[in-house]
Amino acid sequence: MLISDFDYDLPEELIAQQPLDKRDASRMLVLNRGRQTFQDSSFASLANYLRPEDVLVLNNTRVFPARLMGERMPTGGSVELLLLREIEPNVWEALARPARRLKPGAKISFGARLLAEVIDEADHGRRVVRFETDESLDEVINEIGQTPLPPYIKRDSGEFTADRERYQTVYASSRGAIAAPTAGLHFTPRILEQLKALGIQIAEITLHVGYGTFEPVSVNEIANHRVAPEYFSISSDVAIQINQTRPGGGRVICVGTTTARALESSAAEDGQILPGDGAAGLTIVPGYRFRAVDVLLTNFHLPRSSLLLLVSAFAGRELVLEAYRHAIRERYRFYSFGDSMLIL
Question: Residue 236 and residue 230: Cα distance in Å, rounded?
Fold first, then answer.
């Protein structure tokens, strides 16, 4: 299959620029893989599609303000870093702009509290940077950093700073992501309590969403595509909780593609979840056989993206693209702050 097989045309006005006032007010398109059908619904009706025996698996990663704005020393030229991965204490891999001016030895100032030096360079604008501060680096980043803006959200980052908590799930607790697991943005404490009251179990795992999730697909043949590894963690208690679901007649309801990647990366051949910490290096494209996930809740994704490939692997390319065309006709809201899709 070619990446061009996963393209579609989206009117720009359907790209959600702002979150809804109420998290759970979004629409939800429900796909049934067995029947090859879809129907319009609402996220507030999620409980109608779940069973008391099910387990809902959430990704509790928390977005940190990974975007740093600084000045190159001594010229004062503007520099932007997007922190991608901590290599060792105070040393990070980052996307840099303008990368061509940031060679090893280049120094960057982020104000009086934080300095940095480029110590290595890699492909696609990546740089390895060593930070210098007299304080806790995490605390300084939390204070001076900005929440990274998805490139399709066209508004000022200063305005977006006010939405720092809105671009988190209500259950976010484990700091380390550069983007939110957006399928979880629809949940409210009320919805979660409603599901628990119906007997549905809630399980939390962690996968720190990294740049690999959003990196453009650069190959024509999707069989040659690879998504960069992302750190994930699944506790023994959660693994047991998930593994007891199917024998009890329940389903594993996966909230988000990142949760799906973590579960499938940790699943044995028989679908049993193996606990532990590690790097989720699995790339899921059509032809992949899912072992751990029975139902997927997700948002609408960019054309030609790794996330659209994963969803198509789960539900089938033809059904997914037909559903996307329906969503466009019905004026659904797309991408991070957009509406949701439940795939049964």
Answer: 20
CATH topology of domain 3-63+165-343: QueA-like (3.40.1780)
Alpha helices in the chain (DSSP H): 137-144, 157-161, 189-197, 236-243, 257-266, 306-315, 317-329
Tell me the pLDDT of the chain (344 aa) as tens digits: 999 999 999 999 999 998 999 999 999 999 999 999 999 999 999 999 999 999 999 999 999 999 999 999 999 999 999 999 899 999 999 999 898 889 999 999 999 999 999 999 987 789 999 999 999 999 999 999 988 877 788 765 555 555 678 899 999 999 999 999 999 999 999 999 999 999 999 999 999 999 877 788 999 999 999 998 999 999 999 999 999 999 999 999 999 999 999 999 999 999 999 999 999 999 999 999 999 999 999 999 999 999 999 999 999 999 999 999 999 999 999 999 999 999 99
CA-CA distance, 140 to 3, in Å (whole number)? 41
Which are the contacts of 324, defined by CB distance < 8 A and separation ≥ 6? 8, 300
Domain 67-145: CATH class, spelled out: mainly beta
Helix (H, G, I), strand (E, B) or coil at 119: strand
Going by their DSSP bridges, the two strands 340-343 and 27-32 should be labelled as parallel
98: number of Cβ within 10 Å: 12
Cα separation of the two ends of the chain:
24
Which residue ranges make up each domain of the chain?
3-63+165-343, 67-145
- The alpha carbon torsion through 32, 230, 137, 111 (nearest 10 deg) reads -80
Q: What is the pTM of this model?
A: 0.93
